[in-house]
Design brief:
Strand content: under 5%
Largest sheet: 2 strands, antiparallel
Number of helices: 6
Radius of gyration: 14 Å
Shape: globular
Oligomer: single chain
Order of helices and strands: HEHHHHEH
Length: 125
């Protein structure tokens, strides 16, 4: 349970930073409390998408992984962020990703920030 909470908080911080840096990613809302609750909910949605959908996409795109030497991972991560935006919209969360390029840059930033925070705070997997 501790790992789940830590990973969700790390994803929330990474998503917040990506929304702050990338123009095409919006985290709307009035005050910082509303944005905090929204980004935590989006991090939960992001975790569910990465847990349930991403392994299937990776399995079906295995030939592309081999052909591109793993570079297709960036595209898959962008699609997972875009799917998170779609699901967040359906759940009436104030999070939106405008287009593929914003999703690609945002997923790269989320990956880098998550990696750094996992190094800093540890991961007991």
């Amino acid at each position: 349970m501790k790992n789940f909470v830590i990973k969700t908080l790390i994803n929330a911080v990474a998503i917040w930073i990506a929304a702050w840096i990338v123009n095409g990613i919006t985290l709307a809302g009035g005050d910082w409390q509303h944005k905090t609750v929204t980004v935590l909910a989006v991090a939960l949605v992001f975790g569910v998408v990465n847990f349930s959908v991403k392994p299937l996409v990776k399995l079906f795109s295995l030939p592309l992984f081999i052909l591109t030497l793993g570079l297709v991972t960036f595209v898959i991560n962008a699609l997972m962020l875009w799917l998170t935006s779609w699901a967040s919209d359906r759940l009436n969360l104030d999070f939106h990703v405008e287009g593929f390029w914003a999703a690609l840059l945002g997923s790269l930033i989320i990956s880098l920030v998550s990696w750094g925070l996992h190094l800093a705070f540890g991961d007991d997997d």
